[in-house]
Amino acid sequence: MGRKWNNIKEKKASKDANTSRIYAKFGRLIYVAAKQGEPNPESNQALKVVLERAKTYSVPRNIIDRAIEKAKGSSDETYTELRYEGFGPNGSMIIVDTLTNNVNRTAAEVRAAFSKNGGNMGVNGSVSYMFDATAVFGIEGKNSEEVLELLMEADLDVRDILEEEDSVIVYAEPDQFHAVQEAFKEAGVTEFTVAELTMIAQNDVTLPEDAQVKFEKIIDTLEDLEDVQQVYHNVDLGE
Length: 239
Prior knowledge:
alpha+beta, Arc Repressor Mutant, subunit A, Alpha-Beta Plaits, four-stranded antiparallel β-sheet, 8 strands, transcription regulation, transcription, TACO1_YebC-like_2nd/3rd_dom, DNA binding, DNA-binding
């Protein structure tokens, strides 16, 4: 499980290095969540989850407020959530979650990102069965025993609790996201190093150097696409 957390950190670090891109993606995600329900996180659980994720990426308040205000207004922009699955070199597996207002454009761009960099698209379900949807939290300032105790007090049975470097990492079922978050906040934890709903590969693979270069090119191309929200994979990218 430790390697899986390192891959999540690597992905987050990569996105942190491209702040304007990640801010734009969150702006769209916040708008959609606010538009689909009440534009208030206290009554809109989906929006609350997105805002908690945005906080861990240090998304500025003005971007959040602008997206919510847009949702309150008369904008009739509509977005569709789509998932694409495919393969990179040496059978590596990739999942791409998108949020788009032009399905044909997104499909063409995702397909091109695969095909032009040595990968290929798969059918729905060809990859996702090898991944587990997971809620992941990272906190500092407590050890695993303290975290286990506070979760038990909240009557929460999570998948795993691990100490890694300076953080305690909690892996939980996706539908436990809100409950775990609230349990931490009740215990005085208000800052998270990570608070994500993600897809974690059941088994990681290591690629030879030449294949890894091609694989990283696919990932970089996908993450640069405007409509792509998240990219998940099963490759151990190393330290």
